[in-house]
């Protein structure tokens, strides 16, 4: 087995702190997210998981009165240094999928073609190919190939979530952030997304926030445990679930809070 720590990081986070107004929500976070692996973020509600992943593509700045200190590097570029990292480019390379599927009120086809077309792809044949490849990448093509012009809301919740993943894939990201992507789904749809996450890590670096401990254990290579805005422990998933170093991690993964 290759040593996971020898793989170069896609993100390096160094002494990162974040406040909403006067309230500190992330404290001294340092970690390296490995490339082409699945990293799970676990922790109780309010521990800063969503805030942390929204920071990675600078979506957190859309919230009012955010203040940050410390460094976050995407492939060695400081994401807050606009001279090196344009926020639009960062958000293309670092896609996001939310808890509640949020397709556009458009056709299945247009949900996927929209991103590439605003990035300058106008040729219908190329767009057709992007739509097909993205839907295949999200394991949705076979289910929708005969109804690409149907409204996205005609799909089931699980299909809508895979459509949102396909939409993220269409702009050729490197990283996919997923914030509790199966929290609103039934067990069968959840299993399909978990299988998909497993397949996607061949080509993408994935960071998945989950409340579901079995899910973290099933899908991830590394796991970060957040508590009250602090990173308590970050290690190989197997270790976090079988032999964590910190008592608080042990208490959390064994369901004590
Ligand atoms: P989690 O995803 O782990 O449940 P969040 O990152 O959503 O945690 O929230 C962390 C803390 O930040 C919580 O106390 C939450 O109430 C607070 N918070 C989240 N978003 C905002 C915001 N836009 N303005 C002020 N406080 C916020
Ligand atoms: Mg959250």
Note the main attributes of this structure:
257 residues; alpha/beta; Rossmann fold; six-stranded mixed sheet; four-stranded antiparallel sheet; 10 strands; globular; binds adenosine-5'-diphosphate; binds magnesium ion
Blueprint (SSEs and pairs):
Blueprint: E1 9-20, E2 23-34, E3 38-42, H1 49-56, E4 66-74, E5 77-78, H2 87-93, E6 94-97, H3 108-118, H4 124-137, H5 141-144, H6 157-169, E7 175-179, H7 187-200, E8 205-209, H8 213-219, E9 222-227, E10 230-236, H9 237-242, H10 247-253
Helix pairs in contact: 3-4, 3-6, 4-6, 6-7
The structure holds adenosine-5'-diphosphate and magnesium ion.
Folded structure, characterized:
This is Phosphate ABC transporter ATP-binding protein, PhoT family. GO terms for molecular function: ATP binding; ATP hydrolysis activity; phosphate transmembrane transporter activity. One of its GO terms (biological process) is phosphate ion transmembrane transport. It comes from Carnobacterium alterfunditum. Residues 11-253 form the ABC transporter domain. The chain is an alpha/beta fold and 257 residues long. The chain has one domain (11-254): P-loop containing nucleotide triphosphate hydrolases (Rossmann fold), CATH 3.40.50.300. It is built from ten helices and ten strands. The chain has helices at 49-56, 87-93, 108-118, 124-137, 141-144, 157-169, 187-200, 213-219, 237-242, 247-253, and strands at 9-20, 23-34, 38-42, 66-74, 77-78, 94-97, 175-179, 205-209, 222-227, 230-236. The chain has a six-stranded mixed sheet with strand order 6-7-8-3-9-10, sandwiched between helices. A four-stranded antiparallel sheet has the order 2-1-4-5, with helices on one face. Helix 4 (124-137) crosses helix 6 (157-169). The longest helix is centred in the middle third of the chain and has 14 residues, at 124-137. The mean pLDDT is 95. It binds adenosine-5'-diphosphate and magnesium ion. Adenosine-5'-diphosphate (ADP) binds next to helix 1.
């Amino acid at each position: 087995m290759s040593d996971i720590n020898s793989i170069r990081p896609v993100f390096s986070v160094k002494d990162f702190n974040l406040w909403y107004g006067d309230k500190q929500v992330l404290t001294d976070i340092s970690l390296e997210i490995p490339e082409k692996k699945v990293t799970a973020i676990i922790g109780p509600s309010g521990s800063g998981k969503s805030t942390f992943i929204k920071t990675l593509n600078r979506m957190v700045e859309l919230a009012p009165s955010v203040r940050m200190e410390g460094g976050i590097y995407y492939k060695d570029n400081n994401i807050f240094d606009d001279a090196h990292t344009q926020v639009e480019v960062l958000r293309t390379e670092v896609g996001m999928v939310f808890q509640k599927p949020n397709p556009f009120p458009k056709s299945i086809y247009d949900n996927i073609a929209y991103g590439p077309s605003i990035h300058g792809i106008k040729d219908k044949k190329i767009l057709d190919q992007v739509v097909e490849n993205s839907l295949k990448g999200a394991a949705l093509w076979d289910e929708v190939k005969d109804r690409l012009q149907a409204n996205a809301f005609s799909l089931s919740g699980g299909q809508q979530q895979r459509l949102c993943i396909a939409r993220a894939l269409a702009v050729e990201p490197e990283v996919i952030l997923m914030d509790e992507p199966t929290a609103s789904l039934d067990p069968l749809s959840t299993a399909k997304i978990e299988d998909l996450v497993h397949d996607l890590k061949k080509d993408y670096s994935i960071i998945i926030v989950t409340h579901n401990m079995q899910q973290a254990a099933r899908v991830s290579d590394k796991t970060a445990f957040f508590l009250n805005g602090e990173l308590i422990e970050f290690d190989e998933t197997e270790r976090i679930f079988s032999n964590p170093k910190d008592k608080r991690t042990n208490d959390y993964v064994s369901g004590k809070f």
